[in-house]
């Protein structure tokens, strides 16, 4: 992630021209949010009940106090903290950190089963007494500890870091949206923010439970193909396994995502994730529970199908989770020079704005190869399935007008050359056969 943060110019609010005469209070921020929303509903923001998932925006309440502390920090420290926060959130949100801890412990030799020894686990699998079936038979003894650890860290990070990022960008720099936001004129409504937090919270419970089971299973010596000693397989394979794992994880995610964009699966499952046309960091896990579990299961296949060293697998998984947050942040983050395969955040932001296009995540090449990369001469709506869109020359005038309005609402700073590369001038449009 680069330029985005730089472009976002993390100016303390005290230096920034404020919309109001005083520094922005939480009440004012809420008001701005409502004013900027397409369909704001004043009732829901005023009537806050005892339990309200929007309490995650508790940072708004303490915005002034936070600002006092923050304004003392040099800008680069602020940027570094925000970057670390995104990474931490990505690494911990679904409980995968526990898997990393377990792998690391095994690497250090804890819980390793000697190859020639007759371990208890081997005996249990040989003769299972079904009358006395227990978690131990599935290598899941002490699961409750893993589960409590995974869930408590997941929820703490989700609300604390998610709340911080919300404050850092969406509250603190709200009046400078054109400097950092992919869709600066459009904001997710408070109702949808609440919705994504509720769905995200439910999905977190499932994904953390799954991560806890997997970490517990591996920790207890459950059969898998992960190895820990560097010399268990050749060094050639160790180096080769990096691109193999990376490509598997990314290409599998591309296809899973694309399959969930076929009409039946889209309407019954994936549409839920597409309620957010302006995604935020909270949108990452706001996915139908069936879909998110399906994806999580598919992504652990290398742990059972390939001799996988834990270092490349965990590093790549963490990289992917980090970018999952970046891609959904709604902020104009851009890939570093050393990531020529990595699309900028606007790529997935486009996916949320235009629905059935740009299905990939950490390589844009899959969309290029399969013809699902966004094209300038095509329009994409929630009804144009399969990623190919509709030629402008075949679209109706209403469709074109709606699409042009969407294109104009994008931020040029979110693109590489700071130009709206998909913008079509009136002249260009007239050149096309409209009807
Ligand atoms: Zn999608
Ligand atoms: Zn998404």
UniProtKB/TrEMBL annotation:
Coiled coil stretches, renumbered: none
Primary location: membrane
Domain of life: Eukaryota
Biased composition (Low complexity): 13-43
Entry annotated with the keyword Transmembrane: yes
Gene expressing this chain: LOC107221595
Gene Ontology biological process terms in this record: lipid biosynthetic process
Species this protein is from: Neodiprion lecontei (Redheaded pine sawfly)
A Pfam family per the record: FA_hydroxylase
Domain annotation Fatty acid hydroxylase: ranges: 243-372
Lineage of source species: Eukaryota, Metazoa, Ecdysozoa, Arthropoda, Hexapoda
Protein's UniProt name: Methylsterol monooxygenase 1
GO MF annotation list: iron ion binding; oxidoreductase activity
Keywords in alphabetical order: Membrane, Monooxygenase, Oxidoreductase, Transmembrane, Transmembrane helix
Compartment(s) where it occurs, according to its Swiss-Prot or TrEMBL record: Membrane
Renumbered residue ranges of the record's region Disordered: 1-48
Transmembrane segments: 73-93, 145-171, 197-220, 235-256
Keyword Chloroplast tagged: no
GO CC annotation terms, alphabetical: membrane
């Amino acid at each position: 992630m680069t330029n985005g943060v730089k472009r976002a110019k993390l100016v303390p609010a005290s230096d920034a021209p404020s919309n109001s005469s005083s520094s922005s209070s939480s009440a004012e921020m809420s008001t701005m949010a409502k004013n900027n929303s397409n369909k704001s509903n004043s009732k829901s923001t005023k009537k806050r009940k005892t339990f309200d998932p929007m309490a995650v925006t508790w940072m708004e309440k303490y915005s002034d106090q936070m600002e006092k502390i923050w304004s003392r920090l040099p800008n680069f420290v602020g940027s570094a903290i925000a970057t670390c926060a995104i990474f931490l959130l990505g690494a911990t949100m679904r409980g995968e950190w526990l898997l990393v801890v377990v792998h690391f412990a095994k690497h250090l030799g804890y819980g390793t089963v000697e190859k020639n020894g007759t371990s208890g686990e081997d005996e249990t699998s040989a003769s299972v007494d079904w009358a006395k079936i227990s978690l131990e038979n599935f290598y899941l003894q002490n699961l409750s500890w893993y589960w409590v650890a995974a869930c408590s860290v997941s929820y703490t990070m989700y609300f604390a870091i998610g709340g911080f990022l919300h404050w850092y960008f969406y509250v603190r720099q709200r009046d400078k949206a054109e400097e950092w936001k992919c869709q600066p004129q459009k904001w997710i409504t408070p109702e949808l923010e609440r919705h994504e937090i509720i769905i995200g919270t439910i999905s977190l419970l499932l994904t953390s439970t799954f991560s806890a089971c997997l970490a517990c299973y591996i920790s207890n010596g459950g059969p898998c193909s992960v190895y820990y000693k560097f010399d268990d397989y050749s060094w050639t394979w160790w180096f080769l396994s990096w691109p193999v794992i990376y490509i598997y994880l990314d290409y599998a995610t591309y296809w899973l995502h694309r399959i969930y964009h076929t009409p039946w699966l889209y309407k019954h499952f994936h549409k839920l994730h597409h309620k957010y046309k302006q995604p935020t960091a909270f949108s990452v896990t706001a996915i139908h529970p069936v879909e998110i579990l399906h994806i999580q299961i598919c992504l652990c296949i290398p742990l059972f199908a390939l001799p996988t060293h834990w270092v490349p697998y965990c590093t790549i998984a963490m990289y992917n989770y980090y970018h999952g947050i970046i891609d959904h942040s709604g902020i104009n983050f851009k890939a570093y020079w050393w990531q020529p395969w990595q699309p900028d955040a606007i790529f997935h932001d486009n996916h949320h704005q235009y629905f059935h296009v740009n299905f990939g995540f950490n390589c844009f090449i899959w969309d290029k190869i399969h013809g699902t990369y966004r094209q300038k001469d095509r329009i994409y709506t929630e009804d144009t399935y399969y990623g190919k869109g509709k030629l402008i020359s075949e679209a109706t005038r209403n469709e074109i007008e709606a699409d042009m309005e969407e294109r104009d609402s994008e931020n040029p700073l979110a693109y590489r050359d700071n130009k709206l590369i998909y913008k079509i001038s009136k002249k260009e449009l007239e050149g096309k056969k409209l009807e």
